[in-house]
Amino acid sequence: MTSPHPGHAAAVPVLALGETLLVTLQGDLHDRTAEQLQQDVTHRIVRSGAAGVVIDISGVDVVDSFLGRVLAEIAESARLLAAHTVVVGMRPAVAITLVELGLTLPGLTTALDVEQGMELLTRSRPAAADRRGRGT
Amino acid sequence: MPVSGPPVATSLPVGSDADLAWVRQRIRQTAAGLGFGLVQQTKLVTAASELARNTLVHGGGGHVEITPVTRDTTRGLRLSFVDSGPGIRDVELALTDGHTSGGGLGLGLSGARRLVHEFELDTGPGRGTTVTVVAWTADVPAARSGE
Amino acid sequence: MSEQEAVESAAREVGAFLERRREQIAQRWADAPLFRAVFTVSRDEAVEACKAVLDALSEVASAGRLEDVAAPGFDRVRDQLGRMAGSRTRTGSSPAQIADEVAALRAPTAELLRAEPSDATAAEAAETMLALTVLMGTLRLVVMQTALSSGEALIARQRQQLLEVATPVISLWEGVVAVPLIGTLDSARSQVVMESLLESVVDRRARYAILDITGVPTVDSLVAQHLMKTVAAARLMGAECIVSGIRPAIAQTIVHLGIDLGTVLTRASLADALAYALSQQGIEVSPRAGGR
């Protein structure tokens, strides 16, 4: 399927798969990279007319309140642009830590892996497809 | 119980968000080397990330001291986040969930406190802030288990 | 020479003696029960182990810290002594017996010290012998300490293993895992339950995780707290956690305590929870036509 981009730690690959954007986060994210990503994703949604965003965090070993907030904000701004966001692949240790930290991210849709995330988006797709004209 | 540590403290600067990433990485390595389990490592590194960001955002930068410690047979890691910023006026308020002065979710101090075994806050208006936390490799240090 | 100086000089003398006669003492110690019983396979290893202990003692003595169990010199052999004590403990020796075996190392050492050619006065020789005795007493304490703590470590390890054995995660169906909990849930156990359930969610790609508490006698607010944390963590990972088997008495307690399990999906029994998980995946279980 997707191969993780080599090289720059600062670059977060955003891949368009049909009507879905696949964002793969890897390793330790700098705060600035995370903020940059937030902008990139919203721009890509607008440009491509994507109906869904899957953010794969299976390669992330620490999610603190900052990154947690960034994820929640990406989902929220995507929602305003009529795209649904699914965060997938959170590791058990990260999930346990976030709960202990007090960050349960109730507004966020989650799935076990990219495949199940895609499936989840497809199931809620028909309504979204009707809504959207074939725009730019 | 006496807490003694070999004199191998490491001091790292906290002055940019690149420093935060480096601090997380070093603490992860040190904790893994001391025998912390994966969940405990993750908790400690996350707490460190919250506290280092506090040092950076509210304290205007500073440094963190990383010191391996032992108590009886239990090994642990002590982290001190030191800044000479404006300090915290209302400590109790700063430790309340949801309180924020930096635009975050307000979970920095209170959340980090729940992720470690020991937490100490030394601050006052105008005299900077030092947050010291300790995490042990075993969840219940042998000295305290009383079941 | 003041008394203080005499003690310090005797300590240095012992340190130098241990270094000078390292080989001879090590050869004698290797035959003592403590080392012989641990290093049953290779005598050379026993001798090496003896030398490591001797080096530590020599360093402690030369630093003038004869009575200090926390002297840095001991740190180098603490691990080794711990392993030796642990090995003796496992074969059934009590810490007191181990301590006796350490005490038995003093006599052969003292014998060699007495045989040393020396131009020291009788008083100086006596002081040196006393210093050696004190040092060996300190070693006995250090070993005692490590023997006790290796016993504790053994207990802690067994406790951990017991916890893991007591919480098996089972696959009920493709994509459905369950942990039947039996007995009291304390915080260490809840932690293990949470971690193993979430690990299996990843390993088996399970979208549904069932915590069955039929066998749990009481649920207090702390246990409820753990249940809710597990549910929240599973949700963050993209799985749904169902708590089943809440008996009527426990349901009443939960209401009485004012615990809000509102965010937790509950079912009366494990079977009901499984039926829910299956129906959510579009699987329906019904009697076969013509079946009994």
From TrEMBL, chain A:
Annotated STAS domain ranges read 10-121
**Could you tell me the superkingdom of the organism this chain comes from?**
Bacteria
List, alphabetically, the CDD domains matched: STAS_RsbR_RsbS_like
Native species: Streptomyces toyocaensis
InterPro entries membership = Bact_StressResp_Reg (IPR051932), STAS_dom (IPR002645), STAS_dom_sf (IPR036513)
Question: What name has this protein been given in UniProt?
Answer: Anti-anti-sigma factor
Transmembrane stretches in the record are none
The upper taxonomy is: Bacteria, Bacillati, Actinomycetota, Actinomycetes, Kitasatosporales
From TrEMBL, chain B:
At the top level, the lineage of the source is Bacteria
SUPFAM superfamilies for this protein: ATPase domain of HSP90 chaperone/DNA topoisomerase II/histidine kinase
Instruction: Output this protein's name.
Output: Anti-sigma regulatory factor
Domain Histidine kinase/HSP90-like ATPase span(s) in chain numbering: 39-139
What is the scientific name of the source organism? Answer: Streptomyces toyocaensis
Q: Name one Pfam family in it.
A: HATPase_c
